[in-house]
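Sat 14:20. Reprocessing the chain from the morning session after the first attempt stalled halfway. Input below, unchanged.
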Amino acid sequence: MEVGLHHLAYYLPQEIVGLEDLLRMKVLREEEVSLYRDILGVEAIHRSENETAAEIAVKVAQQALEESGIGPQAINAVIYHYTIYLSAVAKAMDPIQKIQYELGLNKAIGYSIWGEGCSSVITALRSARNMIRSGSAETVLVVGADSLTDSRRRQIPGITIQGDGGSAVILQKNCATNRIVEIASRNEGSFYNILNIGSEEEERYNWFFYMGTVRLVNKIIHRAGLSLEDISLIIPHNINSSSWARIARLLRVERTKIYEDNILSHGHAFGADIVINLADAIRQGRIRRGEYALMLSAGLGGSWGGLIIQH
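Finished this time. Tokens:
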């Protein structure tokens, strides 16, 4: 049975905050500005001053329904994914209830997926695909949103700066558009305490990030019966430019094969990145009908997820 990504939508707050702004806000120190700009290729993020993750989730989910023309009664399930940060800053119940209530999804079951950082989006898409394949659903809405609102804790030090935003994907049975070809995940549990590790463990983590990404790519390509030459575009999350340059070298692919356009303009918006990037790449004609794209995301703490679609 074919399952496809029938519609893609995303929302980014209008406020764009640059590195100098983050310096004035005391999110960054002076020496960190040059690190992100000159080495990591990160220049700005989208920031929301007062929209919670739940409010962003409702907004982007509503956008997906309106743009696709699919009514709330046609949605059989809604899956919400988010990162570990939401559990620390949220002041309300899980946003899945708010999404269901405000959008009138009274015929849809709802649940949330988290714990794999920014790769939770891949697990959410896998869960939606499996529901459709098993016959328990025909149309599933997958929503992701994160917002740190006024928090100053926006850094993964030396790696990236985190912005706010959300995405929504409608998956459907017998949908040939953006047909899901293969999904794969990988986890390294030894980094469960990643926020409290020393320099030696940090070096081991960095090594695992690169090798884990390469191994995941090899795994998913092999399972799909394809080669890297068959992949027209690699859609990564927007962690930084230097990491993807290194991964391109490890994979022995041209840098132009990796979609990095939004790293500078949008920055990192957690699990929403790969949906944003896929939607923009399609709109820009970077992926044509019948071509394959490989979506890749990694989560802090040692998790990786990959998805191959045929446009």
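The chain has a mean pLDDT of 90.
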